[in-house]
Amino acid sequence: MPDPAKIFLGNPDYDGQLVRTLTAALVDAADLGETLATARRIDKLDGASWYDAWSRTATVARSAGDAALSVGNRITARNALLRASEYFRQAYYFIRSDLDDPRLQGAYRGHVEAFIAAITLMDHPAEHVRIPYEGTTISGYLFASDGTGTPRPTLLFPCGYDSTAEGGWVNVPPALQRGYNVLVFEGPGQGEALFTQRLYFRADYEKVLTPVIDWVQGRPDIDAERVALIGRSFAGYLAPRGAAFEHRIAALVCDPAQPDMGAHVPDGLIGKVAVPVVEMQVRLSGARAEFFGARMATHGVDSIESYLSVLRTFTMLADAAHISCPTLIVECENDFAGGAGQTLRDAMSVPAEIVHLTADQGADGHCGGPAQEIWAETVFDWLDRTIGDRRATSAVPSH
Description:
Largest sheet: 8 strands, mixed
Strand content: 5-15%
Oligomer: single chain
Structural class: alpha/beta
Strand order of the largest sheet: 1-2-4-3-5-6-7-8
Number of helices: 14
CATH superfamily of the largest domain: Alpha/Beta hydrolase fold, catalytic domain
């Protein structure tokens, strides 16, 4: 019998990341057996062991994809490349504190290159897009629900704290099946913008969202009147912040709502001792050093004091009353980032619906944990009622 500790790793951070890859199997971006076999090879819970195990699996999947492509096996090639992209993403997850680490840079390139190779093999239109942003561009992918060019309702998925536009693929197939176009995109602090361009998170996310909406408005295959913004994980701050200033959004989804990141930083006497306490944790624990180091890297700061200070600026409660579109707030049981849905709703001037997903349903943990089908049914059914076109075909393939 396999050792359960080698499958479920006994650490909430590592288990949480393992669940992300297990759920990627729903969209052909992981294989359950391959994923669990990789978990068993992780000798100890540190970034090096994690990187070695996932890099090996990613390289095997990439080779399988290239071999299948060379003999014309399109579906096999596509799925293997999607798996390779996900596994490369996992490889660098716990070594993100040093943006110049060659392991991170190599795995990130593998993640992107495998995904770009995969989208050329899709059954629906898919393109890698560049969206103008402050003298440069930000990276995204536009997936169309059909190839007719007919304007369709479109869902915008910004990335979260540690995700990439490529990793946003997990949100795409269930949306396409329901007749939506999907744009997944990065901004400062995420993916290419962070790892290559060294652009860091900014609290005024409307400065990122407005150029994206400008670009969307110029697409003939997008119904500009039916564009929804879906913020998952850290985008539960970014999306409502952007929607408070950008009124071309027809619907907003937050999972979970995180309207005030500064609320996580204590004030007063406790706040004064928070910095030395965290600094001590970082000195004593490699895991804590990586945890905070990765987050500091996304903000372009190099001290705990600076990180906690900048985090206090990520608040949008004072602007929440300016959100003008229908809003759905998802609260999942045991989500470490959840619990602020009512706070956001109380600050809004338009009605917002809060839906609670429970561990009994399987929605246990961050953004629903493993219950991604339950999440999709909840969110997309609400979107259907809000901006969708029930006449739209749902017969498109899931790839």
